Amino acid sequence: MVVSLPRVAIPYGRQTIESDDIDAVAEVLRGDWLTQGPSVAAFEKALAGRCRAEHVVAFSSGTAALHGAAFAAGVGPGDVVATSAITFAASANCAAYLGARPTYADISPETWNATPESILAAAGGEPLRAAIPVHFAGLPAPIAAIREAVGPDVTIIEDAAHALGAIDQGMPVGSCEHSDMAVFSFHPVKAIATGEGGAVSTNSADLASRLRSFRTHGMVPAGDGELGEPWLAEQHTLGFNYRISDMQCALGTSQLAKLDRFVERRNAIAARYREALAGSDALELPPAAPEGSRHAYHLFAVRHRGGAEERLRLWTALRARGIYAQVHYVPVYWHPWHRDTYGVQRGHCPDAEDYYAGCLSLPCFPRLTDAEQDEVVAAVLELA
Ligand SMILES: *Cc1c(COP(=O)(O)O)cnc(C)c1O
Fold it and tell me: Hey, is 181 helix, strand or coil?
């Protein structure tokens, strides 16, 4: 009897770990420092160079990095903070952690990103304390225009979790040319992996030192402390243990050297999808990067024109074939906690809700083979 094993499922995203990545981690394990050692600083320096930012502070996750960035910005109780309605909940939660109120900006149907106008509208006439635009799927959001719209006093924190390796009009995302801070994630589905991990880039020495302190319980070296006892680190604010380990950072440095190869491969996969799916009447293809910019293609999301029912049918049929397409994202204010805490009703962001009704992220990651992609394309064309 011939037993045919089902093919391993094709996920929407996954890490690419090679033997030199494994060697880099093993070397740390044989050394003196598992955490708070030289690999953390080396990773931060490499990432700062890569982003063309003055400072990088690495965190235990992208979520912790967002929390740190909102804290460093001085976000607190009563403040209004706007983010995109179509994002992972963490983009909004970081404001809520600090007692501020997250507000949800509608997306542009053309770019699937929040716009300067929608960010201002989200504040509903109240003064904005901070804006957290998201480079959705890896397409640079219009940070320069957002800065112009909100003015110099609103802190702009780019949620760049999808956009490591993206280029915005010649400058790497993370350079903070028009923002105060940019936040990255190194979760395995993201551009580079450290297991869990995140980082904030900034050109402000003051923000960088607030980020470092927040990462370690709010402690600062006691050299300048009131007590004058050189062995002390004094706690000046209420921080957390949000540190990342040396094992993770060794992996991060090794992965970062491959970032261009990874992002180029993602762009090649996106180009193949565009060509193969161009004839589909059922699917709207994602916005491409404008001239002078580079998409990072964390996601290759399409929108089913048939809406929620057709998307569910396609999602289910693909799954039955071991193709694990995924939905990114439910509008943040539809989450019961956000809905119940802030009382935002359905219909609040019509374009975000329209997008959500049809969106589906197809498998897109560096190790996806052409044969696997062909299988995905054939299934999508047949089933959409
Ligand atoms: C992944 C992600 C985060 C959170 O990062 P973690 O490292 O998983 O905590 C935040 N924002 C967006 C848009 C993300 O995709």
Answer: strand
**CA–CA distance, 75 with 96 (Å, rounded to integer):** 10
pLDDT at residue 231, rounded to an integer: 75
CA 263 to chain centre: 15
Please work out whether the CB of residue 87 comes within 6 Å of at least one atom of ligand 1: yes
Q: How far is the CA of 90 from the centre of ligand 1 (A)?
A: 6
Ramachandran angles phi, psi of 181, nearest 5°: -150, 155
From CA 68, how far away is CA 194, in angstroms rounded? 19
Return the SS3 of 205: helix
Kindly report the pTM of this predicted structure.
0.96
* Residue 105 contacts residue 114 (beta carbons within 8 Å): yes
Q: With bands split at pLDDT 50, 70 and 90, how would you rate the model's confidence at 221?
A: confident
Q: Is residue 202 lining ligand 1, measured as CB closer than 6 Å?
A: no
Q: How many beta carbons lie within 10 A of that of residue 259, not counting itself?
A: 17
Tokens of 7: 């093919």
Q: Are 355 and 106 in contact (CB under 8 A)?
A: no
CB of 185 within 6 A of ligand 1: the answer is yes
